[in-house]
Specification:
The protein is α/β, with parallel strands linked by helices and 275 residues long. It contains eight helices and 15 strands. The modification 4-aspartylphosphate is found at residue 54.
């Protein structure tokens, strides 16, 4: 059974999360705390497997809470930071949060987090888990903890999460989470000398860091394929190629300027047929 504690000064939000968690047979709610100090006491008493922590608390910040919780002796809790303010995301991960959840809570996102915890709990015996918290994380392993600081090095420009999502950096500090299903087209901006990512839920493309090259983008997922020097597309949205131009399913059906280069046509057809 997965023991869970919620720390949030918004009682209505905490109750709403508790209600969503109650739909999972694997979970057991150990308690709700409405401030940081009560939350620390509750965590120390119950030693939950997962802590859902709001970042903005009335007495101490969620980040400070996380720092204190991480030094509890012989204990490591998987902390999921949840808030409506994504500007806190980088600090949360640097302090080794297990994951991050935006308010209002999306059921699919919550389900993915619970699944990740179940997989981790099943794969590491309880006796080994505490000692593993004091060992360096191997970021080359597919089971590497997403909260590992080195795995979130902004110099990489773009980083894969364990659940298949990407952390996309737009500068040395700011970044956002992107799912492969959100990506339609990647376009190289020759004037700015960088790649831009067109997403389903955002009007303006995201400008990536200049050190992110086409090889790094293509390695993210086999759905991404290069069709010209200027464009990389998500094959999941490709409907047809007519007059050497890619036509896409909604929400990318308005994109009409993606041409297929002669040198890239065969590889596009091969990958499209192998989906």
């Amino acid at each position: 059974m997965m023991k869970i504690v919620i720390v949030d000064d918004d009682r209505a939000a905490a109750d709403a999360l508790a209600q969503k968690l109650s739909t999972f047979d694997e979970t057991q709610l150990c308690g709700i705390a409405l401030n940081g100090m009560d939350g620390l006491r509750l965590v120390n008493e119950t030693r939950p497997d997962v802590l859902f922590l709001d970042i903005e608390l009335p007495d101490i910040s969620g980040i400070e809470f996380l720092e204190r919780a991480n030094i509890l002796p012989q204990y490591k809790c998987r902390t999921v930071m949840y808030t409506a303010h994504d500007r806190f995301m980088l600090s949360a991960f640097r302090n080794k949060a297990f994951d991050y959840l935006m308010k209002p809570i999306d059921d699919t996102e919550l389900r993915n987090i619970i699944r990740r915890v179940c997989i981790e709990m099943a794969g590491i015996p309880d006796a080994d888990y505490t000692s593993a918290a004091h060992q360096p994380t191997d970021t080359s392993s597919p089971t590497a903890d997403f909260g590992d600081y080195n795995a979130l090095d902004a110099d990489n420009g773009i980083t894969c999460r364990n659940d298949g999502k990407f952390i996309v950096y737009t500068n040395s500090v700011d970044f956002r989470l992107v799912d492969i299903r959100e990506i339609g087209v990647l376009t190289y901006n020759r004037e700015l000398r960088l790649w831009e990512m067109t997403l389903s839920n955002q009007k303006a493309p995201i400008r990536l860091k200049r050190n992110v090259g086409s090889d790094a983008l293509l390695s993210l997922n086999n759905q991404l394929v290069r069709v010209s020097q200027k464009h990389i597309i998500n094959l999941g949205y490709l409907m047809e190629v007519t007059n050497n131009t890619c036509r896409f399913y909604p929400p990318f059906d308005k994109v009409e300027d993606v041409k297929v280069g002669r040198l890239f046509r065969k590889k596009l057809i091969d990958q499209f047929c192998n989906l």
